[in-house]
Every structure is written in C-alpha cells, then in structure tokens.
From TrEMBL:
InterPro entries: DUF1688 (IPR012469). Residues 1-62 are annotated as: Disordered. It comes from Orbilia brochopaga. This is DUF1688-domain-containing protein. It comes from the Eukaryota.
Length: 499
C-alpha cells in the first residue's frame, strides 16, 4: 500500500515476543494493538482531504536522488532498512533486544498518564512553543500582547515565525554545563528550554533586527553581521558557563542571513516570517469553510530549499549539493552512493513542527499531510531506547566511544564524570542510532495508544507522543541514570548544528 493511502482496519494486532504485530483477537492489555492508519499515525489535520487537494508524490530517487534525499518521504523509507536489519540482528553497532519492548511501551505510557490522564486531548503537538513556556509562564502570549493592538494578525504571525526560526536553529545540544538566567523571572534554565528563553530575550532586545525602531523581527541584514561574541553575550556564556558549538551556532545564523536573500521565499525585507506570504499564496493552498488548508510538503519545501545554503559544506554531498543532515550508514544494503545515505533533517523537521503551531493558533491553518513527518532523531528520544535496554551498543563500539570520551574530557570545560561513550555526529554509531530512533518511535505510537485505551480520533498523534512521552521520558531517564550531568547515554561531539 502506498505512502499516501488512507487505509483503516477494524482488525486488531497483538504484540508477540518479537515486538511485532500479528493479526489476532483482543485478549489483554499486552495485546490487541490497533494498527496505525499511516506510517506516522493519523493526526487531527489528516482527516479527509478536500477533493481538490492532493499531496505531491515523492521525488523519483533514481531520476533525482538529491531531491529525494531532501524529501520527507526519504526519512522514513531509508531508515526502514536499518530497522529491518535490527529485526534480523544484523545491525553494525547495536543489539536490538525485543524482550524490552513492552517495558519501553509501559514506561512511555506511565509518563503520559502521570501528566495528562484522563485529558489526553489537551496534549499539545511537539513544538518550540512549549519550551518558551518553561516555568509555567505564557511567554509567547505575553510577547504577542506586547506587539500592541495596531499590529495585525499577519504581522504577529510573521514575528513569531521570525523568532521560532532563529530559536530552533540555536537549539542544537548545549552541553552539560551551560545555563541561562531568564530576564523575566530570574530563574535559571538549561538545555532546550534555556536556549528557548535566551533566544526570546535576544529577540526582544533586537539582536536579530536591523531596524532600531522595531526589535521584534529577524532579518538578513542583522544576521549577516552576527558574531560569536554577540551571541555569547546573549547566551550569558563565560569560562564558568560554557556552551557546546558557539561558533557553529553563530556561523549557522550568519548563513541564514545570506539564505534570506532569496526573495521568492523571504520577501524584499529578507525575513523568515515572509514565508507566510509564500505559503498562503501558494497554488496548492486553498480556502475551505473559511480556513486556509495548507499541504505540509509546501512548508517543507520552503524550509528545505530555502535553508539549504545554511548547512556546513562538510556535510554529505551528492552531485555537488550539500544534503544537510544526511549521512552514510554501513547498515544500508549495497547499492549506489546515494543508496547508502540516510537522511534525517532533524532541525528542519523540528522547525516544521514548531512553525505549524503559531500558524495554526493565529491564522487558523489546517495542515494536510502531517503524517509524513517522523519522530525526531535526537538524543532524548534516542536515549530513551538505550536507557530502557531496547537497544545496546556493541562492546567494541563502547570501548571506542569511551576512549573518545576520555580524550575529550582532558579539554578545558569538558565533563569527566559519569563516563559514557562519545562519537562525532557523522560516526556510523550515531547514524545507526538515529535511524533506529525514527523507526522505533513509529512502532511505539500504536502500542502506546492501545495501552492508553485510545481509539479512532482519540488516538495520540506522533507529535503528541513526542511531546508528552518519549522526549520527556528520555530526559527523565537520563536524570535518574546520570544525575550529575543528566547527559544522554551516548554523547555527541556537537558543532552547534546537529541535535
């Protein structure tokens, strides 16, 4: 059945010892797992399409492998090869222990129940908006209120898109030592939430705007001259408060400034927020029942093509084009060069999830094709599967990773406690780990919905499970397992542009 088929089934499945579903009758909480209707699970926006709207087909990988590897379709399709190898115990770097499957499902369910039962419908989709609200402060709402009544809804949405784009691109791993003291309440935050609050403070201070009369914007002119020292001040970096990948982050934002010269996507004033105009006037966008209906691939294309120039040229290239967050993987079956590449596009997917939220809340957009998005292959979701024992790094790679950790720990400011294996982002261990993460999140969703007793339109979407279960669960397991550093079970040498 094709990727765009909207099949549904009244039949149930049950978990066998391999963690795989087979047709059968409902017997207990451990079985009768309802099959998902799409690879990523049906979402509220993936109800019946208006008859006039159709999702575009995936690019032909043999005719245009670059376009294919940059597409959403390729992420799920390519990572599936790694999952197939796991089922056959043919992974290069990890051991897949199917006996840990139910334990993993139950742990994720316990986190979701603890925080949301019985009001599962209130779980927001995974996105940057929630990170801004750390500590219970409605910072985004307060920011919108500060714009003033004279600012119309379109401009308010553009300003949030400006903020969210910069904030997400700053959201690579911060390391174990960095913290940020919020200007609005004086509290100290770490990691993703700290980066979110810091980015909002810098946004309000006008660091990303070239217009002295309007700090609440991001434009290419300001970003092109952004130096690491400017960013360091905004992030409160000091010798006692270091962050991983400062120069990589600053370089990424300067490259964003150059990419914003693309007037087709970003308008004459070179703002990320102008993608709203492009999307709303795109020929595939239609109005139905007074609401704009937008294809997720339309937003994806803008972000993937418009932001393509920002990624380091040292990344995997094909036909002279940098593919961004896409890497060679030894577990892939033999084939041409492009067939050995596994794409993830984690920051682009994180940005897609995040930008959909303000456009939905402020512009009342209905998104079609959200099921094409995958789970995010980052260290919280991936760490969950290691800390539950579902996947385990093979001994020879543990030794190699520990040697790298010890070498890195000799550098000033680097952690030297709670030793864990460490690898660079392009290492085969990390690529295989991330591919498994994408697939295991897909496999997890229907089982989590079953154990929660959610069916039909009540089922959690993949974005909701990421928000309420796996991302949070991965973080909490890290805090228990490694309380001094709260680091993931495998460390990634960050350049500020991955994870």
């Amino acid at each position: 059945m094709g990727l765009f088929s909207k099949k549904s089934s009244s039949k149930s499945t049950s978990i066998n010892s391999n963690g795989m579903g087979h047709k059968g009758s409902s017997t207990s909480v451990n079985s009768s797992i309802k099959s998902p209707t799409t690879p990523g699970g049906m979402s509220f926006s993936d109800r019946s399409f208006p008859a006039s709207m159709q999702l575009p087909p995936p690019p032909n990988p043999h005719a245009d492998p670059v376009a294919y590897l940059r597409s959403l379709h390729a992420i799920r399709e390519r990572t599936k090869y790694v999952m197939d190898a796991a089922e056959k115990q043919q992974l290069t770097n990890f051991i897949y222990d199917r006996t840990k499957w139910e334990e993993t499902v139950r742990y994720v369910v316990s986190i979701i129940k603890r925080d949301y039962a019985p009001d599962y419908h209130t779980i927001p989709p995974h996105g940057r908006w929630q990170h801004f609200e750390v500590g219970g402060r409605k910072r985004v709402d307060m920011l919108i209120a500060s714009f003033g009544a004279e600012t119309d809804t379109i401009e308010k949405t553009k300003r949030l898109i400006d903020l969210f784009v910069v904030s997400v691109l700053l959201d690579a791993g911060a390391g174990t030592k960095w913290t940020y003291k919020s200007k609005d309440n004086g509290r100290v935050y770490r990691r993703s939430e700290g980066l979110a609050v810091a980015s909002m403070d810098m946004f309000k201070d006008g660091l990303f705007s070239s217009d002295p009369k309007n700090p609440y914007r991001v434009d290419g002119s300001a970003l092109k001259i952004l130096m690491p020292d400017d960013l360091a001040r905004g992030l409160q970096i000091s010798p006692a408060n270091p962050i991983d990948g400062l120069h990589g982050r600053a370089g990424l934002l300067r490259k964003l400034g150059q990419a914003l010269d693309n007037k087709e996507y970003f308008g004459l004033d070179h703002r990320p927020g102008n993608i709203l105009d492009y999307i709303m006037h795109h020929p595939t966008t239609e109005q139905h029942e007074g609401r704009p209906h937008v294809l997720v691939p339309t937003l994806w294309t803008v972000l993937c093509e418009g932001l393509a120039p920002i990624w380091p040229q040292s990344r995997t290239q094909l036909d002279g084009c940098s593919l961004g967050d896409a890497w060679q993987c030894s577990t892939m079956p033999p084939g041409q060069f492009w067939e050995r590449i596994v794409p993830f596009h984690k920051l682009t997917q994180w940005l897609t999830y995040s930008l959909m939220v303000p456009m939905t809340k402020l512009m009342d957009v209905v998104w079609l094709g959200e099921h094409l998005l995958t789970g995010l292959p980052e260290y919280r979701n991936g760490g969950l599967f290691i800390d539950t024992g579902l996947i385990t790094l093979k001994p020879q790679h543990v030794k190699r990773g520990l040697d790298a950790y010890h070498a890195n720990s000799k550098k000033e400011g680097q952690p030297s406690v709670e030793v864990v294996p460490m690898f660079s982002a392009e290492d085969d261990v990390i690529v295989e780990w991330r591919a498994l993460t994408v697939q295991l999140l897909d496999k997890l969703l229907p089982d989590v919905n079953h154990v929660l007793g959610l069916h039909g339109p009540e089922q959690l979407t993949l974005a909701q499970m990421l928000e309420a279960g796996t991302w949070k669960g991965g973080r909490e397991l890290a805090e228990v397992s490694r309380p001094n550093t709260k680091e993931p079970p495998i460390m990634i040498l960050s350049d500020g542009t991955v994870f």
